[in-house]
Amino acid sequence: MAKLYFNYSTMNAGKSTMLLQASYNYRERGMQTLLLTAALDSRAGTARIASRIGIADEAQVFDEGTDLFALASGVIPGIACVFIDEAQFLTRDQVWQLARVADDLGVPVMCYGLRVDFQGELFPGSAALLALADDMREVRTICHCGKKATMVIRRDAEGRAITEGQQVQVGGNETYVSLCRRHWRQAVGQ
Predict the structure, then answer these.
(1) CA distances to 35, 129, 173 from 22, in Å
(2) What is the pLDDT of residues 140-149, one digit of tens each?
(3) Among the options 86, 121, 138, 158, which is catalytic?
């Protein structure tokens, strides 16, 4: 039975590395995979999933209007697994579409993304995945103090934590820092 998986964490935990490794394992055994990433995150280039450690692969992009069930249906039976990077940018409807890929098409779907934003709020895609996923796995990373990081701050040009703004602002190490809850609270003044 195929499942819908949600692998979640904060920034810099290695989610994209894990996705690329899992896809490689399928391909090494002669199986095809479908890699998808959010159109709004082009830090690695358009239609590309890349890890901070230097591995990358081509992917198809999705935006809020992409019907992921129709997309996956168009390439089946050729694929053994669907991989989604930046899953926090999925819509609730798209998460249901991915559940249908697992349920109706019998293809496992592996989603990788952030759980919460810089204000400690769930992303819509993450909330839907937390509600619907058959299997959830936390990908762990650490705060500067050595504790497990569960939160992330967004920094301004001077390195100060920003507490207001749009939920989505694409960025990397120059913009975001993963922290434990205690240090996140200190950084945002709570």
Answers:
(1) 11, 19, 24
(2) 999 999 999 9
(3) 86
